[in-house]
Amino acid sequence: MHELIGQKSQFIIATHSPILLAYPHAKIIQITETGFEEIAFKKTAHYEIYKNFLNNPEYMLEKLGIG
């Protein structure tokens, strides 16, 4: 993917992966009730969920009822 981007290729990727969302200079489009909107990586729900889990997995597992 990185090599193809260097050749001016574009990709449309549907993902929940914070690793793919963090790709440098990625344009992240979020689908909302009112349409499409661009959103910063660190403002995505997926970023927040993964960040909270990694910072405190015991709490998150407890909230899910499995901790």
What does this structure look like?
The protein is α+β, with helices and mostly antiparallel strands and 67 residues long. It has one domain. Helix content is 40%, strand content 12%. The protein has four helices and two strands. A two-stranded antiparallel ribbon has the order 1-2. α3 crosses α4 (57-63).
Strand content is: 5-15%
Mean pLDDT: 92
Question: How are the strands of the biggest sheet laid out side by side?
Answer: 1-2
Largest sheet: 2 strands, antiparallel
How many domains? 1
Radius of gyration: 15 Å
Q: Spans with pLDDT under 50 lasting ≥5 residues?
A: none
Percentage of residues in helical conformation = 40-55%
Number of DSSP helices?
4
Q: How would you describe the shape?
A: elongated
Distance between the termini: 38 Å
H and E string: HHEEHH
Which short descriptors sum up this protein?
4 helices
Q: Layout of SSEs?
A:
Elements: H1 2-6, H2 18-21, E1 29-32, E2 35-38, H3 45-55, H4 57-63
Antiparallel strand pairs: 1-2
Helix pairs in contact: 3-4
In short:
With 67 residues, the chain is of the alpha+beta class. The protein contains four helices and two strands.
